[in-house]
Specification:
The complex is a heterodimer of chains A (406) and B (277).
Chain A lengths: L18 E2 L2 E5 L5 H15 L2 H15 L5 E3 L1 H7 L3 E6 L9 H14 L4 E6 L3 H13 L3 E6 H6 L1 H9 L3 E5 L6 H14 L4 E4 L9 H9 L1 H14 L5 E6 L3 H7 L9 E9 L10 H4 L1 E5 L1 E6 L24 H9 L2 E7 H15 L5 H17 L4 E6 L7 H7 L5
Parallel strand pairs in A: 4-14, 5-6, 5-8, 6-7, 9-10, 9-14, 10-13
Antiparallel strand pairs in A: 1-2, 2-12, 3-4, 11-12
Helix pairs in contact in A: 2-4, 4-5, 4-9, 5-7, 9-11, 10-11, 14-15
Chain B lengths: L2 H14 L3 E7 L5 H14 L4 E4 L10 H12 L4 H12 L7 E5 L1 H7 L1 H11 L3 E4 L8 H9 L3 E2 L2 E2 L8 H5 L6 E4 L12 H15 L3 E4 L5 H8 L4 E4 L1 H12 L4 H18 L8
Parallel strand pairs in B: 1-2, 1-9, 2-3, 3-4, 4-5, 6-7, 7-8, 8-9
Helix pairs in contact in B: 2-4, 2-12, 4-6, 6-7, 10-12, 11-12
């Protein structure tokens, strides 16, 4: 890696080759390269087309239910006794998470490109459900690849996808989790190049996905900016989000990248703890390498074999992270902390009891760090946390960890 | 200049008027010692060039047979370093058969391109195929290999149209690989009639021999492809032999080499209108 040079405009990336500094790129088999170039061109045209943006905006308003509220969590704030804590209520979106923002953008693009079959990968099932939802809405067949381990721990979401008409393919290869689901989706795409659109769920993979998914999720940060200015008359001191692949985090971070007074804090999944091998923290516990089309921080052994991630949260159980996060970490514009399974479970319970909101176990990782962050910022300050999904899907997991039967 | 071995081999085959047979074996499958025994037996069984896979945990363009082969090799502790040791051991007895390594980027990124290229050349590697390294990302690796006399072999596919072909062959050397089906290894079957015009197109544009692989399983199919291509690559069908021999507790080396023998004969006699048996 070259030593990172500090950019003047953080928001100007990726460059023409799909790079955020050294990170990103297009490491895909030749069969896919023409498709990836087509997608790049089609997205660039759509991005610049007011008609596309207007169509997307209409669906986000009337179908997804945007804007999502920015809610002042007064009891949580009081509990920690630090800065005011606001929650960006992405869990109130249709389908219960931020994932639908990206899916709506990509399905409109797929239609524009004349694609007739959609494939997707999913970990927790949130992206799978969102993909199945937009496919139902636009009448396109949808195949969702999901690791067999995740199929087991996220049964309600599997059934939801089936109800929405999607075919869920249980993936048993490799470690049978999200990375293997992504491998299978890529194998499907290589095989069905003529009609298939690959709807990647996070801001990772080969260019243009990291840029495109970020753009579709940046609606979160744009709304927060307006909402916090209206509520507090100022920008927040810190913006906090959980990070697996990192789409909810980059979505809320991106509109603040050039506001250097706003701290950007991602929280990775530490699983059993960073002193163990069982975690999913690519930045805190990995090093740069190439997987799924991009150069980025990865969990891997000393021979460059990808190692299994471990997290209570299926949505964060991925050995990589989006390339823009890798770059923001290296240049120091964002910082990446961690939260263990146990800390996240505590945070899950805390938010449920104090605010009457069941957070997704993914979002609970960010909540696990919010107390310290709010105290560091101090009274008089303002922090915003992206509550990226709702926790109804996780009640079985939480019950199991509490030793309870439901 | 080890790439010279590839050029010399294709020149000799051209003089003979026949296509090359190129078996693919996975390093360390089912274990290092057996893989070496197979490797050593390949030239006599009829291999003109040899592709050796180095295992990766997440091989995104492979079908189930090669995925499983990689898992078997990794379970037995095979590494990229171990793969080079295997090639070095093979080279002790064979100085002429070109060896091409095939795999994925990340183990190479981990090693470092420069250091890897130096060590691979010393071990006796002649070229590399890196599945997730398209021409757009290839320059740093190609530079390192070239400086050490090795070829980076590029893949062309049914989606590589005339507009894209110049980009793909810009830095091609040794030979060009034509992936005969849009798909992963070892699933769909290659169709010689559909392959022929593409081989011709790529040969003409690159001035290099064209090897065809992905989807060639039987001697009949190999013979048909050998009529139109400069080299025929068979991989999944051979690693399946390893899997079956292990399962049936048979002699793995003998079983694989016997399959190689039948495929190699089919390729060798294809253009003379003779049958393999």
């Amino acid at each position: 890696m070259n030593a990172p040079t500090l950019p003047n405009d953080y928001a100007a990336y990726p460059d023409a080759k799909g790079r955020f500094g050294d990170y990103g790129g297009q490491y895909v088999p030749e069969t896919l390269m023409p498709l990836v170039h087509d997608l790049d061109a089609a997205y660039a045209a759509a991005k610049a087309d007011p008609a596309f943006q207007a169509e997307l905006s209409g669906f986000l308003t009337h179908y997804v239910g945007r804007p999502s509220p920015l809610y002042f969590a007064s009891r949580l704030t009081e509990h920690f006794g630090g800065a005011k804590i606001y929650l960006k209520r992405e869990e109130l979106n249709h389908t219960g998470s931020h994932k639908i923002n990206n899916c709506m953008g990509q399905i409109l693009l797929a239609r524009r490109m004349g694609k007739t079959r959609i494939i997707a990968e999913t970990g927790a099932g949130q992206h799978g459900v969102a993909s199945a939802t937009v496919c139902a809405r636009f009448g396109l067949p949808c195949v969702v690849y999901m690791g067999a381990v995740d199929v087991e721990r996220q049964k309600p979401n599997v059934f939801r996808m089936n109800l929405l008409g999607a075919q869920v393919e249980s993936v048993t290869s490799g470690s049978a989790t999200l990375k293997d689901a992504m491998n299978e989706a890529l194998r499907d795409w290589v095989t069905n190049v003529h009609d298939t659109y690959y709807m990647i769920g996070t801001a990772a993979g080969m260019h243009p996905y990291p840029e495109m998914v970020r753009d579709f999720q940046a609606v979160i940060g744009r709304e927060v900016r307006e909402q916090i200015l209206e509520a507090e008359g100022r920008l927040p001191d810190a913006v906090v989000a959980c990070v697996g692949g990192g789409s909810n985090a980059i979505g809320i971070f991106h509109p603040f990248l050039n506001d250097e007074g706003v701290k950007l804090i991602g929280v990775e999944a530490a699983g059993d703890g960073m002193d163990t091998q069982r975690h999913a923290a690519a930045i805190n516990g990995g090093r740069p390498g190439v997987l799924h089309g991009n150069l980025t921080y990865l969990l891997q052994d000393d021979q460059g074999q990808i190692t299994e991630a471990h997290s209570i949260s299926a949505g964060l159980d991925y050995p990589g992270i989006g390339p823009e996060h890798s770059w923001l970490h290296d240049v120091g514009r964002a910082t990446y902390q961690t939260a263990t399974d146990a800390e996240s479970l505590d945070a899950f319970m805390l938010l449920s009891k104090l605010e009457g909101i069941l957070p997704a176990i993914e979002s609970a990782h960010a909540l696990a760090r919010i107390g310290e962050i709010a105290r560091d910022v101090g009274k008089g300050g303002v922090v915003v946390l992206n509550l990226s999904g709702r926790g109804d899907k996780d009640v079985n997991t939480v019950a199991a960890h509490l030793g309870r039967q439901i | 200049m080890t790439q010279a071995r590839i050029d010399a081999r294709f020149a000799a085959l051209k003089a003979e008027g026949r296509a090359a047979f190129v078996p693919y074996v996975m390093a360390g499958d089912p274990d290092a010692a057996t893989a070496l025994a197979i490797l050593k037996g390949l030239p006599e069984a009829g291999a003109d060039l040899i592709e050796v896979g180095f295992p990766f945990s997440d091989p995104m363009a492979e079908g189930p047979p090669i995925q499983r082969a990689a898992q078997r090799a990794l379970a037995k502790g095979m590494t990229l370093k171990g793969t080079l040791a295997l090639i070095a051991a093979f080279r002790e007895a064979d100085q002429t058969t070109p060896v091409i390594l095939m795999g994925y980027m990340n183990p190479l990124v981990t090693w470092g391109f420069q250091a890897f290229a130096r060590d691979a050349a010393v071990a006796g590697v002649d070229g590399m195929i890196v599945v997730d390294c398209p021409p757009e990302e290839a320059d740093p690796l190609a530079d390192a290999l070239e400086a050490n006399g090795m070829a980076l072999i590029f893949l062309t596919t049914p989606t590589t149209d005339d507009k894209r072909l110049p980009t793909v062959i810009r830095r091609a050397s040794g030979f060009v690989y034509y992936v005969s089906v849009a798909g992963v290894t070892g699933v769909k079957e290659a169709d010689a009639a559909a392959v022929a015009p593409n081989v011709e197109r790529i040969r003409k544009a690159s001035g290099l021999p064209v090897a065809v692989g992905f989807g060639i399983k039987t001697p009949e199919r190999a013979a048909a492809i050998a009529q139109v291509a400069d080299a025929v690559v068979v991989g999944s069908a051979l690693v399946d032999e390893v899997a079956e021999a292990v399962e049936l507790n048979e002699d793995v080396t003998r079983r694989v080499l016997s399959k190689v023998d039948s495929l190699a004969k089919a390729v060798r006699f294809a253009r003379r209108g003779l049958t393999a048996v």
